[in-house]
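Supplementary Methods, section 5.1.

A reviewer requested that the exact input to the structure prediction be made available. We therefore reproduce it here, unchanged from the version used in the analyses.
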Amino acid sequence: MELRHLRYFVAVAEELHFGRAAVRLGITQPPLSQQIAALEEELGVTLFERTSRHVALTGPARLFLTEARKTLAQAAHAIDIARRAQQGEVGELSIGFSSSVPFTPVVVEALSAFRESRPAVRLNLTEMPRGEQIDALVQDRIDIGFIRGFETPALSIPINVRMLLTEPLLVAMRSDHPLAAQKRLPTIDDLRDAPFVLYQRTFGAGFNEHLTQLCARAGFTPRVVQEATGLSTLLGLVAAGMGITILTRSLGVLHPENIVFRTLDDPEALSKLWLLYGNRLSTAAQAFVDLIVI
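The structure derived from this sequence is encoded token-by-token as follows.
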């Protein structure tokens, strides 16, 4: 049995006339009659009561009609899904990102535009460390990744890397910290004796390594007194006076109570946001990349 047999049956069942059904289907009546007879033979069921002037559905045919319509509707839906998936209008898009990315306007705007243009595509957004993002890209667990770092990520695998933006680093401190009242912007050397609260290295998005390099250039090693795995914990520890921390300007839009943000006065105190994606993107993934890469 093929879908065309169901279409033929439904047409005759709705028209109750082989001639009109044939016109509706765009075929001649003899082949239609032959196909209906073949369907009845395959099913072992009489579907129509036929006379020279009358065509009527049998009892089994009425039940078969309900199921045939459902089957044809499901088939049409499957075809529509396949075509829309090819055009990137349905399906899934999996994105990995570091903690500050949701506060970055270029990413937020791209996500909003993508959601508006492709509402049927499911967005799977997962915060994950940079190393895990790279592994997930290699293993096709995510389509796109966003990582931070001062230098171009050194990758031994064929992944596309695009720099999206560069932004200065901020020092976050309690409002009663001496540097908060200082008129000039803080420098790296001003942080020499300060206790630091940082992300755990795994979650640090490259900040820890970059900060260590900046401090080494100034002749000291940062004194890390506490590490955190999440942004809320990090800021909570700073607000509690445990130490200062380093964040991107994107996070400067936050206004946590009792915390002051000051731009770090150093030409290399910068964070770069990198877009990572593979070479075999789905249509939906490519559409997102096209939105965010100018």
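The CA atoms of residues 92 and 176 lie 47 Å apart. These observations are discussed further in the main text.
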